[in-house]
DNA sequence: GACGGCTCCAAA
DNA sequence: AACTTTTGGAGCCGTC
């Protein structure tokens, strides 16, 4: 059973039961906004799948009122997938004129096109509320007619479950000890300074740097100034990137690298970050499911939740009597590639535990480092250096796996789209890309035009090559989390989210569960089971394992 | 002064 | 260690 939830043009909220076919059952029920939580709680007892335009619009309100829901269809996220998927390309939904659902999807899925699909000053209307039912019908029709409906149905269920997880994690927050964060900062930078002053240790490092470069007013935050000062000191570099500076020998380099490290910590996760992002002992980042073209999540505000540096993870401390179970999927992307390509040799290499050691054992390359750099090269499209040299060896040993990414790269170079395991397709290249490709074959084309076009084509090929792997890995992670969310709720015996084991953090291939200390063993088992289930859901009988590295800790900084 | 592009660096 | 993918954000700097 489904329950559609939308607001009508008059204002109040409408609830409409739907049967298994998505057809309305009974009269719509109109209630005031203030009565939504109560009505939703009643309906939830019947375990419906909620159908709504946008989880981030409705679910935070329900959570705030103490209502957890089991499952939903997020029409906005689903629309973005179905609109672009190669599996539904001929559906009515995909071939229609663009409408407000595309506009809504646009807010998170950035179209990689030089021409904006919509005028920016055009007002973005509320998602057409009366169209919720019509959109749901169109989506079901598109899925049913797809080449492999099961794949898309799984993707959309996982995507929608991910939206629930994102809202629940934002609600629960990541336990964060402001006092410990302050201690960490003080250790690196010196005590918290007044207003806009530079912390003492950072100030001392800056003084050493200025002395070493004989440049008393140098502002090292300005790449221009820094480059000039380095030049005067006889250090010829093209950029001020740390890895380039590390190659130099000069008394100024040590304080400069130290300054960069400390200045970064201060500006990205210093006291200002702490003041604006941590309230009542919790960090509440806003996750954006589907925010990355590949299907990975993005995060908004909250100072880059998905870039949380290891330096400050020590401030993430479990509540008294509680623990963190931190789990990350080891070498996820190579395993995904092995599974989706059906490359049994590569799957075998990963079955013993350490994927890269398995590659070495198979004789494809000689060292673990070579295996790692070669695999990264295969997935990212390296052509130069050691990685580029090792690639042919890998291609001989694992023709199916390497063939899959090579094919994806060639498709991209021709401007075609590629599709993940479950059916998310890549965007098409933008107008300027297509223009320079066609110009490169024209009469007026110069060698420079042709070479620029080739470079752009290869660049897009690297994107599509990576898209299929990164996107399919993101799908695996969604399935993993959806499974885990369900079993954590069961472990909690139906208790409220924050009273039961619950997800508090997610970073692409890593999750953090906050749970009572007595339940850590059960949670660890649940996390591992959820990973195994995700593999079976996506790849059926293909013998690929997805081992996890699990740590039970009081403090996130202790994990890895 | 606001805005956008650029550089740099954090994460996976 | 980067090369090669996807991001978010701070600070600088030229332009409007």
Structural write-up:
With 560 residues, the chain is α+β, with helices and mostly antiparallel strands. It has four domains: 2-172; 179-274, Taq DNA Polymerase, Chain T, domain 4 (Up-down Bundle), CATH 1.20.1060; 289-332 and 475-559, Alpha-Beta Plaits, CATH 3.30.70.370; 333-467, no CATH class. Helices cover 50% and strands 11% of the residues. The chain is built from 22 helices and 14 strands. It has helices spanning 36-44, 55-64, 75-84, 92-95, 100-106, 132-144, 149-172, 178-189, 200-212, 223-232, 242-245, 253-269, 271-277, 332-341, 344-351, 355-361, 368-380, 385-397, 399-413, 431-439, 447-491, 520-539; strands spanning 2-7, 13-18, 29-31, 49-52, 71-74, 174-175, 278-279, 282-283, 286-288, 298-300, 322-329, 502-506, 510-516, 548-553. The strands form four sheets. It has a five-stranded mixed beta sheet with strand order 3-2-1-4-5, with helices on both faces. Strands 12-13-11-14 form a four-stranded antiparallel beta sheet. A hairpin with a 5-residue loop joins strand 1 (2-7) and strand 2. The longest helix is centred in the C-terminal third of the chain and has 45 residues, at 447-491. It binds a DNA duplex (12 and 16 nucleotides) through residues 219, 221-225, 239-243, 246-247, 260, 263-264, 267-269, 291-294, 296-300, 303-311, 328, 332-333, 373, 376-377, 379-388, 462-463, 465-467, 469-470, 473, 507-510.
